[in-house]
Amino acid sequence: MKSMILGLVGLAALAGTASASDISSGDLVAVGHANIGEATTFTSDRSNNPYYDNTVNFLGQAFANGGAQNQSGNTITRLVADDLGGIHPFFVGKSVTSITFSVANLNATAVSVRARIRFWFADGAGGGPGTYMNSIGYTFNPFTFSSGVTNLTGNLGAGFVLPATKIWAGITFDDNTGTTGATLAQMNNMGVGLFNPPTVGTSADMMFQTTAAGSFFTTNNPAGSLFNFGGAPVANAGWKLIPTPGAAALLGLAGIAASRRRR
User: Fold this and answer.
1) Per the structure, how many domains does the chain have?
2) Could you tell me if residue 44 is inside a domain?
3) Going residue by residue through the chain (263 aa), what tens digit of pLDDT does each one get?
4) Which domain holds residue 58?
5) pTM, full prediction
6) CA dist 91 to 73, 209, 220, Å?
């Protein structure tokens, strides 16, 4: 039983996803923080034209990944994922180069861990995570999380290409082979903040949790299960996908052109 605490793509970009790469993505930048138990409305920059954004309406609750295990000297949690449906077809085929996501620290004190994010096509059992997407993943430098929920932004470099269908975005946490100082018990209390409704795009009332701990890099159809909380709260995590600035600029130009045609 689950436990819950209250255009055109450049050839170079395509070539960048041809081989499997777990990319070291540098430092995360905190852009907001809230306490567990306090529903909060975060600010979110809409000028960058996100493909999907559910980082505004924090429900005051969180879900712990749990299941941490020491795997060859690296303590790592289970992975928790959410389905993300972008709203604007213009972005299909464009590259996501910046991402914002929410991390929950359900410990009473600050804990330093690494966040590792993964993506799947929604072609698994029941519409869950199926085929691993673009053979690419991102591991950020360790970050010291205060108790509560923190929204963070990370740079994805060349990024990954958006498909025409919804995707699953997942996150797991590790102690960077013991160097962060986080204990196994503390790792078990790292997770995701719950947000709803999305301000851009759609997400079903369900999330996914792997059966075992691990990185799940390039793993197709990871073993696990879909779940929700019976609607109270809605099972949606905080994610925001931002396509390359060039794509956003083109979208703005397209809107101006359409407006002029209507006059």
Assistant:
1) 1
2) yes
3) 454 443 323 323 333 334 578 999 999 999 999 999 999 999 988 778 899 999 999 999 999 999 999 999 999 999 999 999 997 778 899 999 999 999 999 999 999 999 999 999 999 999 999 999 999 999 999 999 999 999 999 999 999 999 999 999 999 999 999 999 999 999 999 999 999 999 999 999 999 999 999 999 999 999 999 999 999 999 999 999 999 875 544 444 444 333 334 44
4) 15-178+216-224+240-262
5) 0.88
6) 40, 28, 25
Give residue 87's identity as a one-letter amino acid code. I
Cβ neighbours of residue 132 under 8 Å, at least 6 residues apart?
118, 119, 120, 121, 217, 218, 219, 220
Residues whose CB is less than 8 angstroms from the CB of residue 24 and which lie 6 or more positions away in sequence, other chains included: 139, 141
Question: Would you say residue 61 lies in a domain?
Answer: yes
Asked whether residue 231 is domain-assigned, the answer is no
Sign of the dihedral defined by the CA atoms of residues 126, 3, 174, 110, in that order: positive
